[in-house]
Design goal:
single chain, mainly alpha, rod-shaped
């Protein structure tokens, strides 16, 4: 019991928890003392006194111990509920941040893809337009040269 109490004592979270823990330990020890007296009366063969003690002081001590334990349990449950709510809020904030970062990353990636694509396609379009102008001019020049040759101009 003492090792368990020592282990739990290290986990006490706040002043109210410490107060409830101290109260619980005290009333449990008081109950255990009444139980020791009850066993002693029973061992000594004092059955009527043992029954009276069990129904009286020992029962009252047990009820106080149960009440202290219930109050401590209620306090710990409330603390666990608060911790759960805080953890949920932290998770929700973290999820929102991560989703935002993913969206920003996707937008930046799309912008970079557009810039890279434009940097490749614009020079290709310029080359194609230059080739088209050259072809048009060559065809026109070829047409003029053929017309000139047909007219007998071989210069």
């Amino acid at each position: 019991l003492e090792r368990s109490e020592e282990a739990y004592g290290a986990l006490v979270a706040d002043d109210e928890d410490r107060r409830l823990w101290t109260e619980q330990r005290a009333v449990v020890r008081a109950y255990l003392a009444t139980a020791d007296r009850l066993f002693a009366l029973s061992r000594d063969g004092r059955k009527a006194e043992a029954i009276a003690h069990a129904r009286g002081a020992s029962m009252e001590a047990l009820q106080r111990a149960e009440g202290a334990l219930e109050r401590h349990i209620d306090h710990n449950r409330a603390g666990a509920d608060r911790a759960l709510a805080a953890a949920g809020a932290t998770y929700a904030r973290a999820r929102t941040i991560v989703v935002g970062q993913v969206l920003v990353t996707m937008l930046l990636a799309a912008a970079m893809a557009w810039v890279i694509t434009r940097s490749i396609t614009q020079p290709l379009h310029a080359v194609r337009e230059g080739a088209e102008r050259l072809r048009t001019r060559c065809v026109a020049d070829l047409g003029q040269a053929m017309t000139a040759m047909a007219a007998g101009d071989l210069t």
